[in-house]
Amino acid sequence: MxxxxxxxxxxxxxxxxxxxSGGTVAFIMGxxxxxxxxxxxxxFGKMKEKKSALIYLAKLGAGWVIGMAxxxxxxxxxxESHIYAVSSLFIGFIGGAxxxxxKAERKSLRDIGKGILFCLxxxxxxxGITWANSRSGGAAMELGQFSIxxxxxxxxxxxxxxxxxxxxxxxxxTLLLIxxxxxxxxxxxxxxxxxxxxxxxxLIFFGxxxxxxxxxxxxxxxxxxxxxxxQTIYMILGMMIGSFxxxxxxxxxxxxxQEALGFGNFxxxxxxxxxxxxxxxxxxxxxxxxxxxxCNSRKEEI
Length: 302
Prior knowledge:
By secondary structure, the protein is an all-alpha fold. The protein is built from 12 helices and no strands. It starts with a helix and ends with a helix.
């Protein structure tokens, strides 16, 4: 229970900030396949598989809820007041995660010819959406006042964002940032925690989009990872590379837009902290794997 709760807590912290994916954390910490498999079995599996998946996801979800609640209490203010330090932290995290994924998936990445176009597509997809959103000025979104137009938009944004949560690449929060919904959604969740119930109708539409996206996308992801893994991993890496541009442009999406992240406002210490964080997760994964192998060896000897 404790291990799954900690895993869920770490995923929530990643999912709550733009630039970092809960899927990336799951991949680095070594429980990604179990996570995707459990979600798949919960939706499409037999009754025995559903029960097992439900137990695992309930433990993971308990940690996720605690982590997300703690994150949203401070993130809206932190993201506004320390945007460049936070963005620099995300840059360091993604920069550290990319080589780790390349190392873990080196067999899948050997055939460059199969994947390079998918990598370029991933880069163009994220960068293109980010550019289009900055041109449209889509950041302004008031969720405290119910609107059918905004609610329908939130439904599809939720569907798209949850798809990213399942991928060890671009994060759901980055997509929220790209679509101009990150600050409004975080503010709305924080408002509900403060008993401001005017946000509930819009968040219900957002939540329905999240559930719909989770059900429809998990099958496709599982099939892609099993049958088209090289192409999928290359596209994931492309989306991660493209997310650098989304993070750099993040300050321009605030309610009070600021200049994009650049050399003049880049925080090196924060970036190093992000790099250290992802390396720390990798060390935890490797230690866990060594302990598991050691336990299995003892059992075989007995």
